[in-house]
Structure formats: structure tokens, C-alpha cells
Design a protein that fits this description.
- By secondary structure, this protein is α/β, with parallel strands linked by helices.
- The protein has 2 domains: about 140 residues, NAD(P)-binding Rossmann-like Domain (Rossmann fold); about 140 residues, Dihydrodipicolinate Reductase, domain 2 (2-Layer Sandwich), CATH 3.30.360.10.
- Helices cover about 40% and strands about 25% of the residues.
- It has 10 helices and 11 strands.
- The strands form 2 sheets. It has a 6-stranded parallel β-sheet, sandwiched between helices.
- Helix 5 links the parallel strand 5 and strand 6.
- Helix 6 runs antiparallel to helix 9 and helix 6 crosses helix 10.
- The chain is globular and about 55 Å long.
- The two termini are about 10 Å apart.
- The relative contact order is 0.16.
- The model has no long low-confidence stretch (mean pLDDT about 95).
Amino acid sequence: MDRIKVGIIGPGNIGTDLMYKVMKSRHLEMRLMTGIVESEGIKRAAGLGFATSTKGVDAAAEDPEVKIVFDATSAKAHLYNAPILKAAGKISIDMTPAAVGPYVVPCVNLDRLTEELDFNMVTCGGQATVPIAHAINRAADAEYVEIVSCISSRSAGPGTRANIDEFTETTAKALRQVGGADRSKAIIVLNPAEPPLLMTNTIYALVKNPDEKKIAESVRDIVREVQGYVPGYRLRLPPTLDGNKVTVIVEVEGAGDFLPSYSGNLDIINQAAVAVAEKLAAKMLG
């Protein structure tokens, strides 16, 4: 079967987990892992037989076989990388909160964005909560959505910790721009509990048209859609109403491809990114 070759910039935990997910894909073929130093991630990719480089974004831009590039670096780095990849004609899937391109949450708005060259994967919290915000909004018209994403401290690496401000700002914007809320707020909590807990996301919404049945059906439908590409995504608390206030809790268990299963925060954004790349690759393959 023909497949589209991809490169990954950033051989850390997210980039390595992405590599293993790409290896299972029907439409994608792992081609290149690139960073800026000789790291364990680079060595791991080389050991699996993939091309590697320490030239960073330039290696991905200069490789004519690479058509789609996952940027698993940082928001600051992607601001530098994005124009280089665009000039090289590469499709960029941005794993950082840089938001150079439009926010994409596969089950909500991917079908409207297939002509773009830079896709922003929002944040892990955005991938977990924007679908619920969208489901509530389409059923009951959300005037305000507030989310709290609680993740294990063990699954919050240097990149996550360095981008907490960007996380809250980007997630809140996505709740409005993609989820449809009029106003929004996002909070992240790093939980040091042992043993590590699964990623848990609480979504609060104030709605204009509270209809418990419609909201429950809409949320159940969107959960099934997310489970199509993130099997470990599930309702922990179905929608409950108190007047016009809706509360929903979802948790995410990782697939365990490279990262531990409690790292659902990293797993959901990677699963979503691969879902985007597979959709684009299928279109490129005709």
C-alpha cells in the first residue's frame, strides 16, 4: 500500500511516542527523526532503521521524500520552524501552543481545514475538552465554558512546564473558536499523586437553553467520535444539570505505545495529530 512519508522534529517523549504511532498507521510511513543534539530519541529512531539528523528543522525541510512534518518542539521553536517548512512546501502539524495555523480538533473541524499547510493541535487539554464544549454548545448554546485539566506530574515534561501560560491561553481560545463558547477559561493542575492518576478533565458550562436530554445525547455522540481515534477517552461523569450549569468529566487513558498509560495528556494530542495526518495522507493518495 502506498503511504505518505513523514518527519518528526523533536525526539523527546512526545516525538518518540508519535514515531511509534506512525509506525502503526495505514497511510503514513515514518521517514525522519530530527533534533538539535544526539539524544536518546535520535538513537532510538536510528535503531529502528529510520533516517536521523541533528540539523533540526532544516533536515525536514531539505528531505524531498518528507511530505508531512510533526513539530514536537516548543511554541517558540515552531514560530521559527513554521516559515521554513512552509517555504519548503511541507504540511506542518504543530504539537505546540504556537498556533501559527488554525486550531484543529479532528472530530469537530478537520473537514473544514484540509487545504491548510499548518495545523495547530491546540493543547492536550484542548483535545480533551473542546469536543465536549462543542457538543454542549450545539445542543444548548454555551455562553461560558470553563475547564480544568488535571494531569500527573510525571507526565508533565519540560515542554509542558515551560508552556503553561500558552496552554491556558491557547486552550481558552480554542474553547471559543472551535468549541463555540461565547466566553471561556482554562486551568491546568499538575497532580503529584502516587501512583500516578489518569488525565482527568472537568468541563463546566453555563448554557442559554438547558435541555438535559439533548445535551446528554450530544455529549455521548461526540465521545464516540473521539473514541474513534483515542480509544482510551471516556466519560467519567455524564452531563449533569443544575439550573443552567452543565458539568461533565472525561478521563483519558493512554495507549501505552511508548509512554505509560497514565500519560493520557500526551497520548490524546498525539492520537489526534496522527488522525489529522492520516486524513491528509488519504487525500494526497487519492
